[in-house]
Design brief:
The chain is mainly α. The protein is 79% helix and 0% strand. The chain is built from 19 helices and no strands. Helix 1 packs parallel to helix 12 and helix 3 runs parallel beside helix 15. The radius of gyration is 21 Å and the shape is globular.
Length: 418
């Protein structure tokens, strides 16, 4: 069995063991000790995520600068960026609309029991809505220090600095070639490190699953089964739409793309962290046949502007909370909410549990009790698993499609046969 396939097996086994151990602990421990025990298991996840986070900033910087240098000029950068934003905006609107249609059809909020609210978690999120403003949006986009941006893994800020650095490097020409060569070598070294870090993925997955099942138990599915089921149906439909659109452009390459990203997809699903798979996803998309110069440009942008699963969840959750409180919103108000979410969701890159922060602020804006976020928090971790995996699929499809539009998509398998 290939090493990559073996790692996938280990991750699946880790998920199963995590569920079993979490269930045993939840049923045989004093509830007062749930959080303390869960925190100990979360240390495994923290180790894995921190190992990944330490290589994200240098990887984004090195690959993006080299990518822009290879693209050649600002005209090409603008063309590629324009195509990417066209896809991002279209996918975001479709995701938001799908969430709105489904929540009106299924009425999941009507089934939510007000007695199961997680009020302590809601207070924390309501506090974070102070970060939700035009000032914070500007601060999240434009760096005042590249070192601060790298230290806090503000991907969008790193992208802005890297674009300036890459364009300046290209403008200088011949004298800058040693710098480009050095950064290209550094990016290959970091990608080699990715392979080493991924070996810790099963431990991170085991810790994450054990922790959440220890605290929540499997009983959470009894109370929130219909809410989670309707959301999963929505995610499945979103996948159909995304992969259907991809098939129109990529033709028969879509199954090959899904096979390539299957391991990053599984890690993102089980750890609820898109960030955890950024380096691995970069590597796999290049292996699929996307040009490294385009991958290094589109993927960091996608991580800030193209979170399809999170976008769908924002309308789904906001309207479900309104339904739980018996608040009727007419179609015009719902469409206004959709447009507000479309704009405001772009300004919270780097905020923990970003989609929930946006939902909380949006509820307050439309006179829905913001503390209603407490109603969906108990099941949110499981919803987050599906929306995180969908974000990875959405960004992979976007990168492959833009590469195809640029006429740069190759087929390594077909070339190997020649």
């Amino acid at each position: 069995m290939r090493k990559g396939n073996l790692l996938t097996v280990y991750i699946i086994v880790a998920m199963i063991l995590g569920v079993l151990l979490g269930y045993i602990l939840h049923n045989n421990m004093n509830p007062a000790g749930f959080k303390d025990t869960a925190d100990k298991f979360k240390l495994l996840t923290t180790i894995f995520l921190r190992l990944v986070q330490m290589i994200i900033a240098p990887l984004v910087f090195c690959t993006l600068v080299v990518g822009i240098a290879k693209l050649g000029d600002m005209k090409t950068v603008g063309r590629v960026g324009g195509k990417a934003l066209l896809w991002f905006v279209s996918a975001s609107l479709v995701s938001l609309l799908l969430g709105m249609v489904l929540v009106n059809f299924f009425q999941p909020g009507a089934a939510i029991d007000l007695s199961n609210a997680d009020t302590s978690g809601a207070k924390d999120l309501i506090g974070k809505t102070t970060e939700f403003s035009l000032v914070k949006f500007v601060e999240h986009v434009f760096p005042k220090s590249i070192f601060e941006a790298m230290a806090t893994n503000e991907i969008l800020q790193i992208v802005i600095f890297s674009i300036f650095f890459g364009v300046a490097t290209t403008a200088i020409g011949e004298p800058a070639k040693p710098v480009i060569k050095a950064l290209d070598a550094a990016s290959h070294i970091i990608l080699k490190m990715v392979g080493y870090v991924m070996n810790f993925a099963p431990l991170g997955v085991f810790g994450a699953i054990t922790a959440v099942i220890t605290v929540k138990g499997l009983e959470v599915f009894k109370f929130y089964g219909s809410y989670l089921l309707y959301f999963i149906i929505g995610i499945a439909l979103l996948w159909v739409l995304l992969l259907g659109a991809a098939t129109l452009i990529l033709k028969d390459r879509v199954p090959q793309l899904l096979k390539r990203i299957s391991q990053p997809l599984l890690i993102a699903f089980s750890t609820t962290s898109s960030e955890a798979v950024f380096p691995k996803l970069t590597d796999e998309l290049v292996r699929f046949g996307c040009k490294d110069k385009i991958v290094s440009f589109i993927l960091p942008l996608g991580y800030s502007f193209n979170l399809d699963g999170s976008m769908m969840y924002m309308t789904f959750a906001s309207l479900a909370i309104a339904q739980a409180y018996g608040i009727h919103l007419d179609l015009g108000t719902q469409l206004t909410m959709l447009l507000v979410l479309m704009l405001t969701s772009k300004g919270i890159a780097g905020v923990p549990r970003a989609s929930l922060v946006v939902v909380t602020a949006t509820c307050a804006m439309f006179k829905i009790p913001p503390e209603g976020i407490a109603l969906i928090l108990p099941i949110d971790h499981f919803c987050d698993m599906f929306r995180t995996a969908t974000n990875v699929v959405g960004n992979s499809v976007a990168t492959a499609v833009v590469t195809k539009w640029e006429g740069e998509l190759t087929d390594p398998i077909a070339e190997a046969v020649k």
